[in-house]
Fold this protein.
Amino acid sequence: MSLSIRNQIPGTITSVTAGEAMSTVKVRLQGGQDITAAITTEAVKDLGFAEGTAVKALVKSTEVSLATGPVEGISIRNQIAGTVTDVATGGAMGSVKVSVEGGELTAAITKDAVEALGLTAGTSVVALIKSTEISLSV
C-alpha cells in the first residue's frame, strides 16, 4: 500500500498498555529512540500488536512540531532529537526535513516559525509529536 504520509519510521513494539477504548503502545524506533502511540484498543486487537511486533510509526508532516531544544512542562511525550537537513519555504508555509537516528522526519510548519527559530541545514532540533497523532502499521 502506498501512502501520502512521508514520515514512516520502522521500529518494534516494546509494550502495550490496554485501556477500555484506547491503548498506549510503546515503540523502540530503529535508531533507538522510544515513542508512544495512543491508538484504539480495537486496533491493537485487530492488528495483533504485542511486544516484539515489527511496525512502522506513521506521522503526517503537519503533526510534527519543532523546537530548538528539549521542552519541559509539556504533555507531549514524544521528543525526538535530530538535525535539520533541508528547509524549503513558500509564501506562508515551510517544509523542514530533519535527520533522526534511523530515519528522517518532515515537519510542515509556518514560514514565520522557520524564520523565528532560525532553521537552516545543520540546526539541532527536537521533533515534538503527540502520541494521539502517531499511527502504526504492520
User: Anything to note?
Assistant: Residues 37 and 135 are 7 Å apart (CA to CA). The first strand starts at residue 7 and ends at 18. The helical segments are 41-47, 111-117. The mean pLDDT is 96.
